[in-house]
Amino acid sequence: MGSSKLHQNDANCVWVDGPIIVGAGPSGLATSACLTQQGVPSLILEKSDCLASLWQLRTYDRLKLHLPKQFCELPLLGFPHNFPKYPTQHQFISYLESYAGHFSIQPRFNQAVQSADYDHILGFWRVKTQDSEYISRWLITATGENAEPVIPDIPGINKFNGSVVHTSSYKSGSEFKNQRVLVIGCGNSGMEVSLDLCRYNAIPHMVVRNTVHVLPREMFGFSTFGIAMALIKWFPLWLVDKFLLLVANFILGNTDQVGLRRPKTGPIELKNVTGKTPVLDVGALSQIKSGEIKVMEGVKEITGNGAKFMDGREKEIDSIILATGYKSNVPTWLKGCDFFNKDGMPKTPFPNGWKAEKGLYTVGFTRRGLLGTASDAVKIARDIARQWRPNDSCSNSHVILLKET
């Protein structure tokens, strides 16, 4: 789709008429669909063998969207009406597959991008995978904030005799029946995995190293996120944060008393500034209060059969689950570009981080979930459509130049 061979004798060199999009997750699909609507072809390169590999290969069985479906739709095509308010992982994947089908999006699978360089002489992007080089005027990075698992360097973890898994490999608590499990991390994944472990008679010990905001998923029958989005249109951010915390304390009680200390910065401001998402409680808090989930301070070191903690306590542990999140992988393959910082996030803050220079665009790096993705995708498609000329393809002189370089 949107590509043609550069030269008959150069089978591994592919000229792409429209943009090259790296990544076939929600961000890549949304951008491709918006481009299609504008009459611009595109080519998605995807390193795995399926759409939305994070959702298909790296999520646990009981995962549901944490936000109501209207905040998770991609542009131009909503969820089916019969989907519940909080779609399951499988429902979300089926939505993405039907989305790709609706817009005739056909990514090239098993194409792991090894490098992407801007050719200053020709004014093109050269994108190399393990078996081809793709060339285009535009490059869209859609690998997102959650491309690679974060594996922290914890002293002694290599000595541990039990199993150590990242949540990207965790499927269900059934694998940990009756075990003492150390869950490192207390974000949405850490909380939800701990809750899942309880259902299989495991004993989760959840490590809470830093402060964390826990909010009820719903307030007065409405989504907390929806309430926040509505209020922020009318009131200053600090006031909305104050309201959310007031109601959260009323519904959940003082979380400090169970070892979950709140940050001084409000939940929305913290999310905007650092990208740290508040935990939306789906039942873990009551298990913490009842002692089913044990809250632990930071880990000092891992031993052969357990862990030592910062407060001096020691515990015997059977397994460790790293609920330590994900990170961007852009610095590993995008070369010669200072638009991204060392963490692989755009240096330009939201809402202007979607466009760089020389035909480079980014989608899915807003720290604002699928709403941010949808907003980026629409802007990128409009911007490229303004530059697009049909039959804008590689002339013979370009072919010769490319053959010589």
From TrEMBL:
Give the EC number(s) under which this enzyme is classified: 1.-.-.-
The UniProt keyword set, sorted, is: Auxin biosynthesis, FAD, Flavoprotein, Monooxygenase, NADP, Oxidoreductase
What Pfam families does this protein map onto?
Answer: FMO-like
Q: What class of enzyme is it?
A: oxidoreductase
Give the protein's cofactors.
FAD
Q: In which pathway does it act?
A: Plant hormone metabolism; auxin biosynthesis
What molecular function does GO assign, one term? NADP binding
Give any single GO term for biological process: auxin biosynthetic process
Its cellular-component GO annotations read:
endoplasmic reticulum membrane
Name of this protein: Flavin-containing monooxygenase
